[in-house]
């Protein structure tokens, strides 16, 4: 009998549409050896969706559903929610409690990486290069002069706990600081003001199982936009070059750093790490994605293809590894 795999999408952030596109990609990428079923989670509304007209509520006690009078249980959950509750450890904790195997990082790694400032400070202790930054919470008094002196202009202001570049502003002048902070707070509960890093933007994905360690080819990100914003990511305003046109020593350092980060976080499944590489070759962390996008045009499928791997084999590795424990 086929294992039942829940492809869990939706979520409570602005990224829910991206999540549904990733779910559509995973329906294609996960092989037909599995029974693949879409589950959407939006607030308290958890449901199985076979079609627009055929939907069944999820029993949150055991993540099951009833169809035609028969109770159905899942064997595995592939989490592809970008944002809360699927990327910050909440859903991972739930699945741990009901002993449901799932695809991505556990509670600690998910919660650390979900907050960009906390993640940077944690990985800095492992020798990972990060930008200078200031952490702001709602209600904090904003010291514009401190931002100018410690961070400098231009700088980036972004929500600590958001993704897909929602709420991110490249700030060039003093009068843009407060509006940018307000915009970022509309997307998250904390905000990071970050020193601008210049250089070549790249991203590198990898996964590990009990038997193997696979680092994918690196993608170079080239955009004419101010930065790799939502339009660049999802509306084609970017060139994504895989493998990246970078020196071998840069490639080796990026891959080595990605493995270091994976192990420091005790990560699981596929992660993707974004970097800025300065002209001299210094590799600086931008952010870590523990539930990276899996649309048909996302970085990870591109990198898997460039590695001459079959994406259904990668999905098989990730799913079956959880049943060896």
Radius of gyration: 20 Å
Number of domains: 3
Based on secondary structure, the structural category is alpha+beta
What fraction strand? 25-35%
Number of strands: 17
What is the helix/strand order? Answer: EHEEEEEEHHHEHEEHEEEEHEHEEHH
The CATH topology of the largest domain corresponds to D-amino Acid Aminotransferase, Chain A, domain 1
Report on this model:
It contains ten helices and 17 strands. By secondary structure, the protein is an alpha+beta fold. Helix content is 30%, strand content 28%. It has three domains: 101 residues, Rossmann fold (3-Layer(aba) Sandwich), CATH 3.40.50.20; 134 residues, ATP-grasp fold, B domain (D-amino Acid Aminotransferase, Chain A, domain 1, 2-Layer Sandwich), CATH 3.30.470.20; 63 residues, Dna Ligase, domain 1 (2-Layer Sandwich). A hairpin with a 2-residue loop joins strand 5 and strand 6. The longest helix has 17 residues. Strands 12, 13, 14, 15, 16 and 17 form a six-stranded antiparallel sheet that branches. Strands 4-3-2-1-7 form a five-stranded mixed sheet, covered by helices on one side. The protein is globular, with a radius of gyration of 20 Å. About 3% of the residues have low confidence.
In short:
The chain is 30% helix and 28% strand. With 325 residues, the chain is α+β, with helices and mostly antiparallel strands.
Pick out its properties:
D-amino Acid Aminotransferase, Chain A, domain 1, globular, Rossmann fold, 10 helices, alpha+beta, six-stranded antiparallel β-sheet
């Amino acid at each position: 009998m086929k294992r039942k795999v829940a492809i869990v999408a939706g979520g409570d952030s602005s990224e829910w549409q991206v999540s549904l596109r990733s779910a559509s990609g995973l329906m294609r990428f996960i092989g037909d050896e599995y029974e693949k079923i879409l589950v959407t989670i939006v607030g308290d509304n958890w449901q199985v969706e076979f079609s627009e007209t055929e939907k069944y509520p999820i029993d949150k006690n055991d993540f099951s559903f009833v169809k035609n009078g028969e109770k159905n249980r899942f064997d595995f959950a592939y989490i592809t929610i970008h944002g809360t509750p699927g990327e910050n450890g909440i859903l991972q904790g739930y699945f741990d409690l009901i002993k449901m195997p799932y695809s991505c990082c556990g509670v600690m790694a998910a919660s650390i990486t979900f907050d960009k400032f906390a993640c940077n400070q944690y990985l800095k202790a492992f020798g990972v290069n990060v930008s200078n930054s200031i952490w702001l919470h709602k209600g904090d008094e904003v010291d514009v002069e401190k931002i100018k002196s410690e961070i400098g202009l231009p700088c980036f202001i972004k929500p600590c706990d958001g993704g897909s570049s929602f709420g991110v502003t490249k700030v060039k002048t003093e009068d843009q600081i407060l509006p940018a902070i307000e915009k970022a707070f509309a997307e998250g509960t904390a905000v990071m003001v970050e020193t601008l890093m210049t250089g070549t933007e790249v991203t590198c994905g990898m996964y590990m199982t009990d038997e193997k360690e696979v680092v994918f080819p690196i993608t170079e990100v080239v955009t004419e936009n101010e930065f790799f914003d939502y339009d660049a990511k999802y509306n084609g305003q970017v060139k994504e070059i895989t493998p990246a046109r970078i020196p071998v020593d840069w490639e080796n350092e990026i891959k080595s750093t990605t493995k270091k980060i994976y192990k420091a976080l005790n990560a699981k499944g596929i992660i993707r790490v974004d970097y800025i590489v300065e002209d001299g070759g210094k590799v600086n962390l931008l952010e870590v994605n523990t539930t990276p996008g899996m649309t048909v045009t996302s970085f990870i499928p591109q990198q898997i293809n460039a590695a001459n791997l079959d994406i259904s084999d990668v999905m098989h590795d990730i799913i079956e590894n959880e049943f060896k424990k």
